[in-house]
Amino acid sequence: MPLLEIKNVKKYYSTPRGLLHAVDDVTMNIEKGKTIGIVGESGCGKSTLGKTLIRMEDATAGEIWFDGQEITGMQHHEFRKMRMKMQMIFQDPYSSLDPRMSVYQLIAEPIQTYKLAQGKKDLEEKVFGLMEEVGLAKRLSNSYPHELDGGRRQRIGIARALSLDPEFIVCDEPVSALDVSIQAQILNLLMDLQKDKDLTYMFITHDMSVVKHISDDIAVMYLGQVVEKAGFEELFARPLHPYSKALFSAIPVPSIHNRRERILLKGEITSPVNPKPCCRFAARCPHAEDICRQTEPKLRDMGNGHFCKCHRAGEV
Amino acid sequence: MSKITTPAMVKLNKKTKGRHKETGNTPMQEGLKRLRKNKTAMAGMIIILFLIIIAIFAPLIAPYGYQEQSYTEVRLGPSLQHLFGTDHLGRDIFSRCVYGTRYSLPIGLICTLLGLVIGGGLGLVAAYFGGRTDNIIMRIIDIIQAIPSILLCIALVAILGNGMWQLVVAITAGTIQGMTKNVRAAVFMVRNNEYVNSSKSIGVSDFQIMIRHLVPNAVGIIVINAVGVVATSILTISSLSYLGVGLVAPTPEWGAILAEGKQYMAVAPHMVYFPGLMIAITVVAFYLFGNGLRDALDPRLK
């Protein structure tokens, strides 16, 4: 049984111009101990999806089953216990840590919130234990976030998420605000932690080289919908959706001789407000035909665990 | 080989002793250290403490009683017998000013604290929850604000009667709306920060988020406002006394002394200068201290 089952989850926001379809009909399963990478450009709803899963935003429709329990319909006091198991690591380690709190206070906050420590001594032990686990020196416990570099701050964010012993962590672009050299350190830390604690990640990013590094499965999102989904090797070897192809062609190749042809997308992104029932990528797709502009494609099984939401998948 | 120690090293060791704890100082210690290093804040604090001491020991410090009249010494200028001179009834202004600390200071402070708790609380709730809660609270505040605060005070005093506590209630009522608006504005600026979301995602309760994240991050503006309110409260007492609805006649409240002196400003300006000076010194002291406090509370300023 998968740890997380997401069934037809929708998240709409009402705006003055109409309903904004931030997440539209997303269905996927996430297996325990695996990492699913969610890729897509800014504004495609990947962060909203992550937030909806841990109920920072309430889903408009759909079901989310975590560990055999449906969570979208839960009352707040019921969900409290589940929340401990689902945590989030935020994108920007500069703004996601309260500047008035010391490292110690920041890491102690979740433990105090759920009263997981017996007395001051126990709390201290737990906080220092977590700091060691994420690679923060003990002497930093009374420092403030602004005194530390981005990597160390993100380690604080990771320690906060880990402090409640979660099973599932939404990593919302955890390395995109960091230096490339530090990105690797944080990614390695996340992978080590996954191995040690059997964690399940949803890794949201727009950086294809990062997702390649860490994911088992990858889902490509475009305007609120999952347009392609497959195991990471399968997807990198055989991208089917024209949007995925364009995304993959944007990964820089570290070689001056091997110049790949890049697919440049033209046209505007379709508005996510009251979208028409057609392929949402049709306006920018180099292979779009009449059918693409008239009916919405379904997420089709293309074999080998590969799903693609395109009328012309396999043809072009 | 034995270690080499020079006098300079010994001196340095002494200086840095205690600083090399494994984990450094706690936030509280750091804050106090910053406050102590801030000279203007310390100056403000010393003046405030000095005023409090004067208030406590007023009968010992004042050379005359505050309503002791002497008809042979009317409207005398400052001299050694009467440091601040005498008023139109021959009362010693210095003594009256000394006794005045017993009224102006506590009323100013209590009104501010009450206003901060009630108004600040309302502003905090309004800004944090937003939407309908915000709308209801702010419309009520708007209605209160439509009544001029001095009129509100007079009306309340008229209903409740004269006296210290009635005055406190009246002045507090006048400060609430300003406090609510200021705190709301200050909290609005910090409530959309990502760290608030981060705490929400962990499951921290709304109350904890307000107390532990929003208030500390908005505290700079709140403190500065509160200090301003201490000053205006003291001035409001004075205006009310001047209008005759404040403290009753012989009470040596600074504003009342000032008000009495106004009539004789042309012939005996000292009757206005000294109580005015006392108010000014107090207000400035609170401002200095408030500024320093704001800086001490912010770990980013070192």
What is this structure, in a nutshell?
With 316 residues, chain A is of the alpha/beta class. Helices cover 31% and strands 22% of the residues of chain A.
Detailed description of the structure:
The complex is a heterodimer of chains A (316) and B (302). Chain A is α/β, with parallel strands linked by helices. Chain A has a domain at 4-85 and 206-308: Rossmann fold, CATH 3.40.50. Chain A contains ten helices and twelve strands. In chain A, the strands form two sheets. Chain A has an eight-stranded mixed beta sheet with strand order 6-7-8-3-9-10-12-11, sandwiched between helices. In chain A, helix 3 packs parallel to helix 5. The radius of gyration of chain A is 21 Å and the shape is globular. The model of chain A has no long low-confidence stretch (mean pLDDT 89). Chain B has 302 residues and is mainly α. Chain B has one domain: MetI-like (MetI-like fold). Chain B contains twelve helices and no strands. In chain B, helix 5 (93-129) runs parallel beside helix 12 (270-297) and helix 10 (206-243) runs parallel beside helix 11 (254-262). The model of chain B has no long low-confidence stretch (mean pLDDT 85). The chains are: A alpha/beta (316), B mainly alpha (302). Chain A binds chain B through residues 54, 56, 80, 83-84, 87-88, 90-92, 95-102, 104-105, 109-110, 113-114, 138-139, 141-144, 146, 157, 160, 164, and chain B through 22-27, 30, 193-195, 197-205, 208, 212-213, 216-217, 297-300. Chain B: Belongs to the binding-protein-dependent transport system permease family. Chain B: InterPro entries: BP-dependent_transpt_permease, MetI-like, MetI-like_sf, OppC_N.
